[in-house]
Amino acid sequence: MRHCLPVFATLFTLAIGAPASAQYMYLDANGDGQCTSADVLTAPTTSVDVYLKTNRNANGSAAVCPTGEALTINSYTFIVSAPLGGVHYGAWTDNMGFTINANKYPNGTVTAGNDIWIAKASGTPSAPGSYKLGSLAITVTGTPTLEIHPTSTLDETALTSFGSACPGKDFDNTMKLPTDWTDLCGTSVAVPVTETTWGKIKAGYNH
Distance between CA atoms of 53 and 57, rounded to whole angstroms? Predict the structure, then answer.
């Protein structure tokens, strides 16, 4: 049976209203629960955590639903991409207790090229807040970066969003990137040691 995000969105009463101000989705590669310049993918990295703040913007300010509904979450779907390659995707481990696949693929995941699309849902909404959605196993084979994208060529229905009591711009209780929110943070690029002052000093002694 095919499960699609709009099906679960109908668990909530639709209401007419403007899009919410913002939410924040980000990747954490070093396990500190944040997205900073320290989140660099190297060969020892074996997983990346994906977080979503349904009621906060990246700067910490409150995100609100203009029509007054709570920014709950009962599904998530997102696309992670490695634009330059250099990474192999492994299994997704859900941290929300969401057991329904919110797309047509086994385990709610599909990979093609440099992209992976992950989509899970639940019949029970969770309260507004900050959530670790889960962890994506990876194998690093180069010097990649990971980004969160709104769409992907791997499937024409692929999107980044979360189901909520807030109606959203399309009035389908689905908060979509980038029409309903825009705040994102991916992994950072490694800085070659020779580009730092100490790195240049060290390099000079090696000549």
Answer: 7
- What's the pTM value of the predicted model, to 2 decimals? 0.84
Residue 188, strand partner residues: 40
- Is 2.40.50.1020 the CATH number for 5-205? no
Pairing label, strands 161-163, 183-185: unpaired
Strand order in the sheet with 87-94: 87-94, 130-140, 47-53, 24-28, 183-185
Rounded to 5°, angle at Cα 169 from 163 and 173: 25
CB 19 within 8 A of CB 69: no
Output DSSP code: residue 204. H
Inter-CA distances, 168 with 123, 165, 178, Å: 19, 9, 11
Q: Assess contact for 77 and 87: CB atoms under 8 A.
A: no
- The answer, yes or no, to whether residue 11 has pLDDT greater than 60, is no
pLDDT at 9: 37
3-state secondary structure of 73: strand
Q: What are the structural domain ranges in the chain?
A: 5-205
Token couple for 188:
């950072």
Contact 173, 12 (CB under 8 A): yes
Q: Is it the case that residue 46 has pLDDT exceeding 90?
A: yes
Please give the Cα distance from 115 to 154 (Å, whole number).
7
